[in-house]
Write a structure and sequence with these properties.
By secondary structure, this protein is an alpha/beta fold. The protein folds into three domains: 214 residues, Rossmann fold, CATH 3.40.50; 43 residues; 90 residues, GMP Synthetase, Chain A, domain 3 (2-Layer Sandwich), CATH 3.30.300.20. It contains eleven helices and 15 strands. An eight-stranded mixed sheet has the order 1-2-4-3-5-6-9-10, sandwiched between helices. A three-stranded antiparallel sheet has the order 11-12-13, with no helix packed on it. Strands 7-8 form a two-stranded antiparallel sheet. The two termini are 18 Å apart. The mean pLDDT is 88.
């Protein structure tokens, strides 16, 4: 995937820094605008992982630091909720000018509330997603409840959120009280997806219930079971990204999937960041990747897992094809394949690494009404699998430079 550092001006002419996640093999037609949580930034786990997950599904995703946070200009103490909404509108204008206007807006926690308000001002938005968002802005005050009297009397106070100190001014409190989230929801006619964890200890699941009651149809709710408020576990944030992409396909017109003209041709496309590789095989799109320990993002199988998958799939298909032709009652064929480099038997130079050869171990489970001779024959047929023949012979690979 492509990862671009971008910047744009907000309505106060302050420079906001962002990251644009793009699929490698094509310019996306649909863009998503992501709003991070209160006092967070664009590089937190949730915005980063969700953006990568959505980019792997073909979307362009812009996440950025709100004014006064992360790498963006400005002082946080001079900002408020309305300013966050304005920043989102500025971000949408940037996308419209430089790429395509955002079709989806996603907001996490207080960013979810900001996404709801901003969606009313961004004409291009066709779908809205909130993640662990509060149903009322007054809930945010719980972060600095003990300092409210100081803020009221002194005009500001220093508070601690997540181990970090922030200065909060009275105008921030006043701005929260002047924005009515329920009224905003009543005015929205855009499809809305509410995602919330029942185990959220910062914004309880009751907030999702209130949001759902206040919203108009079409509206959807998905439970992020066992996730924490920050979606700090990578699998939880990637799961959320996958669900958003699946849900949005109902409301966002998807571009036609390009197909390769040549039979049996596949294409693998990798940009200069990471190892997440976009693959087209016929009309099918998917990704390959490397595990995190190898520097990847683990968004898809690695190349050897893909090879092993080909062998496993081909084996199961070949056995079933034969059994069906013979009208044998085979209920299911399950093939397990593992790959490793091992020393060849009777190896004369086993102490040398180069003496190791590619080794695929295959275990086959065949279920059905079969006698021993039939099972024995099916196990022989497994070796007739075309991929098995390819891997067990010396294949020829011809390589040439392709013109752009």
């Amino acid at each position: 995937m492509k990862k671009l550092d971008v910047s744009f001006k907000n309505s106060d002419s302050k420079t906001l820094q962002g990251v644009l996640e793009l699929p490698t093999n094509k310019k996306p037609e649909n863009f998503i605008l992501f709003a991070h949580c209160f006092t967070c930034n664009k590089n937190f786990h949730a915005p980063s992982n969700i953006s990568k997950s959505l980019a792997s599904k073909g979307y362009g995703v812009l996440r950025f630091d709100f004014t006064g946070l992360g790498e963006s200009d400005g002082n946080f103490e001079d900002t408020n909720f309305s300013g966050n909404v304005d920043d989102l509108v500025s971000a949408a204008s940037f996308l419209k000018k430089e790429y395509n206007a955002p079709a989806i807006i996603v907001g996490h926690s207080l960013g979810g509330a900001a996404a709801l308000f901003a969606a009313k001002e961004i004409d291009s938005v066709k779908a809205i997603v909130t993640i662990n968002a509060p149903s009322n802005l007054a809930h945010v005050q719980k972060h600095f409840e003990s300092s409210l009297s100081e803020i009221e009397n002194e005009g500001s106070a220093k508070i601690n959120i997540g181990g970090r100190s922030f200065q909060i001014k009275k105008q921030f409190i006043d701005d929260l009280e002047n924005n009515n989230e329920s009224k905003t929801l009543e005015e929205i006619r855009t499809p809305l997806l509410i995602m919330h964890s029942p185990q959220d200890k910062i914004v309880s699941i009751k907030h999702a219930e209130e949001l759902y009651k206040s919203a108009r149809h079409p509206k959807s709710f998905i439970s992020l079971e066992k996730a924490d408020h920050m979606l700090s576990t990578r699998s939880d944030s990637e799961y959320a990204g996958g669900l958003i992409a699946a849900w949005a396909s109902k409301y966002i017109e998807q571009p036609e999937v390009p197909e390769l003209d040549t039979d049996h041709e596949v294409m693998a496309n990798l940009g200069k960041h990471g190892y997440t590789t976009q693959i087209i095989a016929g009309k099918h799109h998917f990704v390959a990747d490397e595990p995190e320990k190898a520097g990847g993002s683990d968004l898809g199988p690695n190349p050897y897992e893909l090879v092993s998958s080909g062998l496993a799939a081909c084996t199961s298909m070949t056995i079933q094809m034969y059994a069906r032709r013979k009208e044998w009652k085979v209920e299911n064929v399950e093939t397990h394949v593992s790959y490793a480099k091992k020393h060849a038997e009777d190896c004369e130079n086993c102490e040398k690494d180069q003496a190791k050869i590619d080794s695929f171990e295959r275990e086959i489970s065949i279920q059905g009404e079969l006698d021993e001779k039939q099972i024995e024959r099916l196990m022989q047929i497994a070796d007739k699998c075309p991929v098995h023949k390819t891997l067990s012979s010396k294949a020829q690979i011809e390589t040439k430079l392709r013109s752009s």
